[in-house]
Design goal:
alpha+beta; Beta-Lactamase; 19 helices; disordered N terminus
Length: 634
Amino acid sequence: MNTQSRPLHVTVSPTTRQSLANLQRVFYAARGFDRISRVYLQDARRGYLRWGADGKVRQLDELNPHLSHEETTPAVNGMRIGAPVERLDLATVTKVSQAISGEIVLRKLIDTLMRTAIEQAGAERGLLILLHAGEPRIEAEATTVTDALLVKVNEQPVTPIALPESVLHFVLRVRENVILEDAAAEPSFAKDPYILERKARSILCLPLITQGKLIGVLYLENNLAPGTFSAGRSSVLKMLASQAATALENSRLYGEVQQREAKIRRLLDANLIGIFISRGTGEIIEANQAFLGMVGYDREDLLAGRVNSLDLTPPEWLESTLDARTEAKRTGAVQQFEKEYIRKDGSRVPVLIGLAVFDERHDQGVGFVLDLTERRRAEAEARESERRYRETLIGLAHANRITTMGQLAASIAHEVNQPIAAISSNAGAGLHWLGAQPPNLEEVGQTFGLIIRDSMRAGNVIRRIRALMNKAPMQTELLAIDEVILEVLALVRVELAKHDVWVQTRLPEALPLVRADRVQVRQVILNLITNAIEAMSEINEGDRELLISARTDDSNYVLITFRDTGPGLDPNSADRVFEAFYTTKSDGMGMGLAICHSIIEAHGGRMWAGANHPRGAVFQFSIPIAQEGVDRSQ
Ligand code: ADP
């Protein structure tokens, strides 16, 4: 008879009831009168079994243990693997089932499971072993101490001191329940260190399987007597194991959901960033205050279903938003991306958003939103101040800032004198043409034209000089020139790249500090680099290289050198490059080097130029080392 396929619940017909009553009589007779033979008892048991009267079978077995032994599959060498499920006592089934499935909180469930298992099996000690990423770990231990049952829920590793590992691994491998009637006498496991040490007797080890997945093992032992775990009991325990596996898995899932919800709730309530939960239709069903504030809606709007993430999305962002949602549905989450939302008042808010969908409900997802307004403003401000900074620096270099007027006075006088002299001679010529008979008006007109041109030239010179004079006085500080060089190089990085200029620096560590005006020194360096770039841009052959080096010289000066591979200086006018208004460029002013020269002199230094080898120009300047900041390493 295939007992495994028999149902647990039976309906009893009137004829069957009659037969049962007869059997009961036989049973009572058997209990009370020895003369009723054992054969009758066997008949009674078989009858009960056939009609599914499991409680009665159990009762009979308890009073006459030999009966069940004779009836069940005999154990091979005292070991039963995959013992068949006997019919179960309905009351026990209900009790076990209710106890286990009633618990959803993992700790309580484990406690109930262990207590029920120990009680049902008549075990002395029990272990619940669960698999964590395929690795078995002891999750709980139940022990009977005198009359009390102690359950310890405490994760610990599987060790040979805790249980017979050979039995555990056997069960994990074959995924069948194993009953050892006398473990110490069982050849396959007798050598297990635990069994040897503890003189283990009855052992029952049940795999916990739910939906075909092995999630752990229930291990029970009774070392007081062999054969404690009869096949009949094992049926209840097997049913218990299967219920427990499902309940444990449910409890784990429930715990995960709870943990995740708690995390989301904490995040939502923290209002650090905007968070919303939305449906596939875009309807936002939950959102925190941070998000609502961002888009200008209130909780009432939310509850009335008036907040929809797709309606909040401007048309130009709709396509990318829908793409992101599809991606999130497919992969579970989407990389954060930037977009805009339309606020309730119609204005726009730039945001950074990340999306994730819930594992079990793909039609719902959570969005994490960061308001980018402040960041955008800061970025714009940074860009603007960077632009102004560059403008000022370039302006400084090209607007020909001057520090010592005296040196330039002669050149200025010369520059202004020239057009004035031309004006006066042209005026004389004009008078001459006017006095002629007849007056030559054409020549008069031309001389007036020349007078206007020269007066404008003089006016321009004066305007430029006025601009130079307005600059602020020198403000000195302790300065690391090498740092200023790197700062300027960062500023002209784009220009250097645009003109294919390769820069090399040789700046020693801990170059002594100088006392200087940072803005003016920066201007000198910028001017020299700009001149080198412009000079090298004129040539198309060979590499465009600029070498900037710094060192201290013997007389306590910091010496800075700029070597380029441009056309170099014209030997006939090399000493004139520092003169004001000396320029070889069509749009040049010829003031840059004059100003650099005067700045360096004002700092107590020197500036000079020469030829580079094999080609190009060398510009150098020196500034005295500051007395108070010689050693930077201190
Ligand atoms: P600008 O650049 O307006 O001409 P500067 O005073 O900066 O005024 O330069 C004066 C002149 O010195 C330039 O016109 C150029 O002829 C020469 N010069 C400056 N730097 C270099 C250089 N690195 N290589 C060759 N010639 C240079």
